[in-house]
């Protein structure tokens, strides 16, 4: 096996592998840093990433008890102010529903699969009195992807799976049934249209098989098996593009957002090219 001992798989590393085996090899096996710009214009991309980080941090502080008024006074950006206002006005029913028993913000779950570790960091989980658990993930994308694309992302497969397998401590040690779990993607730019993905036993079994298959496949590969993606148009957003001789100039930041909103089915090479994650533009990477 080429992976280092104790390697931990996350949704980001698995998505990198699905998108481009070569990128996975360069990043997680060779640990190669390649200082290419991920998108143009650089300053706009950086500003937007910082906005997403600030939004996540503010929400976490609010959920931890910091008054909303105090946090609101720290906002000095128009777009961030809009997101924050939408959160305060439209997300409160989501995060404080009737029958709420417990709320967990910014926590990590991990479990073993195929002699490896799977790990995920959650924005928020809501435990309801009747036993249901809602995973909430904040998405600060400027454009909202289609549901079919979102459902097939590694995050949508891994997060509910890990919650069932390793989340018993959230409910007093009781087993969690897949039917008790749902995942909500909430967009501060689109507060009236969250995406709700319900989980069930069939999805859990399929997820276990899929994740096991990916991990086993990665473990069996030789150096020569980590091929580059065939979708060369996506390489413009990969930091390794010049190393792979697939261009020098970074792709346009606005154009990648257009691709995100139009993509109906996830394809190899669609996202997280080197570090630039199409689905989580402006969010905290993990």
How would you portray this structure in words?
The structure is a single chain. A hairpin with a 2-residue loop joins β3 and β4. Helix content is 38%, strand content 17%. It is globular. The two termini are 24 Å apart. The chain has helices spanning 11-19, 21-29, 42-63, 68-72, 78-90, 92-95, 147-151, 154-166, 201-220, 253-262; strands at residues 8-9, 39-40, 100-113, 116-128, 133-138, 181-186, 195-198, 251-252. The strands form two sheets. Strands 1, 3, 4, 5, 6 and 7 form a six-stranded mixed beta sheet that branches. A two-stranded parallel ribbon has the order 2-8. The model is unreliable at 257-286 (pLDDT under 50). With 286 residues, the protein is an alpha/beta fold. The protein has a single domain, classed as Lambda Exonuclease, Chain A. It is built from ten helices and eight strands.
């Amino acid at each position: 096996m080429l992976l280092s001992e104790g390697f931990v798989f996350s949704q980001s590393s698995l998505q990198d592998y699905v998108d481009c085996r070569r990128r996975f090899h360069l990043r997680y096996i060779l640990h190669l840093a390649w200082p290419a710009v991920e998108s143009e214009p650089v300053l706009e991309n950086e500003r937007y990433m910082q906005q997403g980080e600030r939004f996540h941090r503010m929400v976490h502080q609010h959920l931890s008890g910091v008054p909303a008024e105090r946090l609101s006074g720290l906002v000095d950006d128009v777009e961030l102010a809009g997101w924050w206002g939408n959160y305060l006005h439209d997300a409160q029913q989501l995060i404080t529903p009737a029958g709420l028993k417990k709320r967990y913000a910014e926590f990590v779950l991990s479990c073993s699969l195929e002699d490896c570790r799977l790990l995920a960091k959650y924005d928020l989980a809501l435990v309801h009195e009747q036993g249901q658990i809602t995973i909430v993930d904040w998405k600060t994308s400027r454009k909202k992807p289609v549901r079919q694309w979102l459902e097939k992302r590694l995050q949508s497969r891994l997060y509910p799976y890990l919650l069932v397998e390793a989340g018993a401590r959230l409910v007093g040690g009781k087993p969690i049934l897949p039917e008790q779990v749902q995942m909500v993607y909430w967009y501060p730019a689109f507060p009236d249209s969250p995406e709700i993905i319900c989980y069930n036993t069939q999805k859990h079994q399929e997820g276990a098989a899929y994740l096991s298959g990916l991990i086993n496949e990665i473990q069996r590969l030789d150096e020569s098996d980590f091929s580059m993606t065939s979708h060369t148009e996506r390489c413009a957003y990969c930091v390794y593009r010049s190393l792979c001789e697939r261009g020098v100039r970074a792709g346009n930041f606005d154009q990648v957002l257009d691709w995100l909103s139009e993509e109906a089915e996830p394809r190899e090479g669609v996202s997280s090219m080197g570090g630039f994650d199409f689905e989580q533009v402006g969010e905290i990477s993990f």
